[in-house]
Amino acid sequence: LTSLLPLSYSTVIYELHDRLSELDFGDIRPVHGFMFNFINPDGATGIELAEYLGITKQAVSKMVDYLEKSGYVMRKAHPTDKRGKIIVLTERGWLVVKAKEKILTEIEQRWIEKVGTQRLQMLKEDLTTLVYEANEDRLPTRLRPVW
């Protein structure tokens, strides 16, 4: 099981990125997707992103520089901190998020066709139970994306 879970995840991520490349989003990497997932419509600070991703503020800054040059994010003035910046997704950033959601839905649908709705739902429920029981009240701060 501990080998199959990361292999199934990798399978999805490889297909996702192959298909994103076909849609002219070939410069996106898995870590960027984790960042995009955290940035809500109001944006996020570099400090928030660093904490969520479990990396340094400098590493986040380099990623933001790259994504800004590629047109996926932009830095805006922070509404309450005159020195701070908020990172927000651009139109291109939202396009890749929507493409990702569509592709993942299609992959999941294909998996449902292979194993059946009931079995996939049971798997989701069982994994959810295991994750929440193992982490109790620590989910928001303890679990971070891995790649």
Strand order of the largest sheet: 1-2
What is the SS-derived class? Answer: mainly alpha
Nearest-angstrom radius of gyration?
17 Å
List the helices and strands in order.
HHHHEEHHH
User: What is the residue-mean pLDDT, rounded to a whole number?
Assistant: 90
Q: Give the biggest sheet.
A: 2 strands, antiparallel
Binned strand content: 5-15%
Q: Pick out the low-confidence regions.
A: none
* Overall body shape: globular
Distance between the termini: 18 Å
Helix content: 55-70%
Number of strands: 2
**Separate helix tally:** 7
Description of the molecule:
This protein is mainly α and 147 residues long. It is 66% helix and 7% strand. The chain is built from seven helices and two strands; from the N terminus they run ααααββααα. It has helices at residues 4-22, 30-38, 46-53, 57-69, 91-115, 117-135, 139-142, and strands spanning 73-77, 85-89. Strands 1-2 form a two-stranded antiparallel ribbon. It is globular and about 50 Å long. The model has no long low-confidence stretch (mean pLDDT 90).
What characteristics describe this protein?
mainly alpha; two-stranded antiparallel sheet; 7 helices; 66% helix; globular
Any chance you could write out the topology, listing elements then pairs?
Blueprint: H1 4-22, H2 30-38, H3 46-53, H4 57-69, E1 73-77, E2 85-89, H5 91-115, H6 117-135, H7 139-142
Antiparallel strand pairs: 1-2
Helix pairs in contact: 1-5, 3-4, 5-6
